[in-house]
Amino acid sequence: MRKAFTLIELLVVIAIIAILAAILFPVFTQAKAAAKKTQAISNAKQTTLASIMYSNDVDDMIHPAQTWGGGGPATVGGVSTSPWTWLVMPYMKNADILMDPQAPGPLAWPAVWPVLVAKAFQPEMGFNVDGLAQVIASTTITHNVQGMTNVANPADTVLYTAKNSRSEVKGLTTPTGFWWFGAGTYNIQLTVQQPYCSPDPTVVCGYDWGSAQFLADTILARKEAAGAYTGAVSMRGTGQMVVSWTDGHVSSKNWGAMTAGTNFGKLANGTWVSGANGLLLQDKTKYLWDIE
Q1: What is the rounded distance in angstroms from the CA atom of residue 192 to the CA atom of residue 241?
Q2: I want to staple 109 with a disulfide (CB 3.0 to 4.6 A). Which of 69, 118, 166, 244 is the partner?
Q3: pLDDT over 90 at 249, yes or no
């Protein structure tokens, strides 16, 4: 007599497999997210070390957000230009570390640019330009970069953070489209905005933190994970911001930790406090975004 499984036994086995899959798939998803976060932190660490090596070779000065002329790798607005990513490229020789594996990925590279150049102009790490440079009020908004030794608390001063991918930008279809203020200034795609934007008219606020701001409404289509409400500083699937500091270490923080010293947060109606409705710098000694 031949032996075989009964239909009931087969159904029981299938049910057990389905239950195990339902249990394990979320675990695999979490493990994958954790692995991507680890890689993002590693990329940020390597980029930060490259930045520090750059500073060591230029009299301890922090790199600018962008330079113009001098044979930069691409022409923007009729002028050759080098983003900060290109300035530190000789110290890392790998544009992949400018990418955030937690992000959905950038737009397709422009056919006229080498991949290395394209990634340098579309980084998923943003520079804290307003915190580490002094604004000069002029018709071409520029910045005077600071020296590393000018930073009072290197372990508590933001250098870079994870930022939005260009594929997350609302309505953007071309990788070569930039938001900038003209030749001699900088492309805000290379930077992130600090939480508190001073009312000083000489300070450039490319976008703000909070609700109903240009970044949330016009650029990032209210994608919280991409940084729509946090100055393009991205909170990925883990809800954490990958941050590198001017002393060279890298960590991940939630938005509450990154807005220390301010009243940034969510209001009772679910919207965010913002510059438009009362974001204040209350304790400068706790603020993580300037050199003081």
Answers
A1: 12
A2: 118
A3: yes
